[in-house]
């Protein structure tokens, strides 16, 4: 029997359930992109003092391209590829509207790399969500999981864990994240050999 539920907007259950849930979220996000595109359509506000193209570009660069990041940090990256491909396609449609060009018409190896470079390196600052889903996931694991159980800081003080229950301690290993940190993930990776779960996704990443 498979149990399927959503906790804090994160789907948990069978692979089919997770992917179906993400497909619905992808559609919802793309619809929001369409709203932005229509509201900031340059043809709707042609006056030169209303910089709709610049407004749409800044909004895309600073906000919209990260709309799927919450799910990237919480879901096995093996299940998020199609979800993020859809987000990427929606972002490039916004970029095309902002620039007034077809991206596919001028992309080559050089411009492809420039598009992905950060602004400080004279790139466009667009970050492929599909390509960074592994980094997003492992970053969330490294940031959040050590905070679940009690651990010792470098002065030997106990830092209370947020979910310091017996089952969580058994899974992560008592003292795994004490300072100095040496092998924080050894206990979890050796104990959990299931094909799905945090340990499996961490190995894949």
Which helices and strands appear, and what pairs or packs with what?
Elements: E1 5-7, E2 10-12, H1 15-39, H2 52-62, H3 69-72, H4 81-99, H5 109-116, H6 133-144, E3 151-152, E4 158-159, H7 166-172, H8 186-191, H9 198-204
Antiparallel strand pairs: 1-2, 3-4
Helix pairs in contact: 1-4, 2-4
- Structural class by SSE content: mainly alpha
Sheet with the most strands, sense and barrel status? 2 strands, antiparallel
Give the termini separation: 28 Å
**Poorly predicted tracts of residues:** none
Proportion of residues in helical segments: 40-55%
* Average residue pLDDT: 85
* Helix and strand run: EEHHHHHHEEHHH
Number of helices: 9
Kindly report the spatial arrangement of strands forming the biggest sheet.
Answer: 1-2
Oligomer: single chain
